[in-house]
Amino acid sequence: MRIHVYATLKDYFSPEFELEAVARNTDELKQRLLDINGQAGQLLDSCRFAVEDGFIDNQYKLKENDTVIIIPPSSGG
Amino acid sequence: MRIHVYATLKDYFSPEFELEAVARNTDELKQRLLDINGQAGQLLDSCRFAVEDGFIDNQYKLKENDTVIIIPPSSGG
Amino acid sequence: MIRSSLSPPQVEVSQPSLGVDYVISAGPLDLVGLLSHAHHPAAGAVVLFSGEVRDHNKGREVAYLEYETYRPLAVKMIHEILAEAREKWGLRTAIAQHRIGRLSIGESAVVVITAAAHRREAYEANQHIIHRIKHEVPIWKCEYFSDGTHQWGNNCNC
Amino acid sequence: MIRSSLSPPQVEVSQPSLGVDYVISAGPLDLVGLLSHAHHPAAGAVVLFSGEVRDHNKGREVAYLEYETYRPLAVKMIHEILAEAREKWGLRTAIAQHRIGRLSIGESAVVVITAAAHRREAYEANQHIIHRIKHEVPIWKCEYFSDGTHQWGNNCNC
């Protein structure tokens, strides 16, 4: 599974990386990310997740070849 | 006394004219204007009066050589 | 007696480089040129309003408009309105210009530009300024319709 | 599961002549060019908002900004926001463009242009659009301060 992170998340993770561990949904993905960097918990709680051009929630079944986008709170403008 | 009128007032009066009759304040001026055109009453009640770049009210003592500007409701923009 | 002091008006010129009389223009409004005066390093928000001539009004087809003004008072009042808004909302920029004479459909009749540190102030002040210009300043619109008739405006319809 | 349909997005392109991707720009925003798309014979009111880079933020001197985005989602969301506003306020024009990359003080980071028959709708829709873009669309600001430090924005400050 491919992971892309943006903005302040790059202070905690590589901008793009391959996640070897299994994550079947966003709750499991969040746990795998905390395994990598335990300090990102509060930030991850405020993030949204997306695949392609759509947001996903925990009901979405992640697939092995998905690229998951992790989206911190917006600060445009 | 010189009188300048604007906008819809020009449907009732000449744009600029000399008022021969005596008008010592704006109430008297309004009466003199009604003497010229009695149909302008309702419109004149909604008008403001000015001399140079300042509004005047009925307390202002009109002088023989004043030029009085009669200002119908604004409709800019 | 409430007549105010003689001209020249003693009010602040909102944008010195534009001159006092810029607020009334007999020619087309240069929105781009005016906007170029608006940017300010301490202003995070710039709002521009342009009031433009619509092709219809109250169901009637408009051919063109004409605006006239009593200039000495209009210039003074617009500067006063800008100065008050600048003070009240802490604006970095406050510009307004109203066109007079004959205008075609789509042309800009009035432009208001405000700039402030934050956007709420820039929007609020902009709306306040155009409202006061439309309702208080001695400027009058005459609509010429396609059927050959015309009508002086007596209330705002934008 | 709430993932929406695959790209290309099926939302209305607000200004066809500008193309779908115009809403995110890697180069300087052309306010004048965008404004020239806004005029409409049935629109009496045009409002332009420009969010510009301030020289100070929360007491600190700003050297420059950088914005980044997740483009596929940002483009789709901005078009959806514009289409909804167009519908809700009956807009004749709804344009938005956000810049990404490095910006200097005074440069425009985002522009929103609305046009409607009457001015209330044009102002309201404009404020609504910029509010949603700032708070919902995946675009992020990083402030670089004169002291060499930097900070990712996590809430709006314009």
Report on the architecture of this protein:
The complex is a heterotetramer, with 2 copies of chain A (77 residues) and 2 copies of chain C (158 residues). Chain A is α+β, with helices and mostly antiparallel strands and 77 residues long. Chain A has 2 helices and 5 strands. Chain C has 158 residues and is α+β, with helices and mostly antiparallel strands. Chain C has 3 helices and 9 strands. Chains in contact: A-D, B-C, C-D. At the A-D interface, strand 4 of A face strand 4, helix 2, helix 3 and strand 8 of D.
Brief overview:
The complex is a heterotetramer, with 2 copies of chain A (77 residues) and 2 copies of chain C (158 residues). Chain A has 77 residues and is α+β, with helices and mostly antiparallel strands.
| Mean of residue pLDDT values of chain C | 89
CATH top level assignment of chain A = Alpha Beta
Structural class computed from helices and strand pairing of chain A: alpha+beta
Give the CA-based shape of chain C.
elongated
Give unreliable regions of chain C as ranges. 4-12
The CATH architecture designation of chain C is Alpha-Beta Complex
Task: Kindly identify the CATH topology of chain A.
Answer: Ubiquitin-like (UB roll)
Beta-strand portion of chain C reads 25-35%
Task: Give the beta-strand count of chain C.
Answer: 9
Main sheet overview of chain C: 5 strands, antiparallel
Taking all Cα atoms into account, the compactness measure Rg of chain A is 11 Å
H/E element order of chain A: EEHHEEE
Task: Record the strand order, biggest sheet of chain A.
Answer: 2-1-5-3-4
Percentage of residues in DSSP E strands of chain A: 15-25%
CATH class of chain C: Alpha Beta
Q: Structural class of the helices, strands and pairings of chain C?
A: alpha+beta
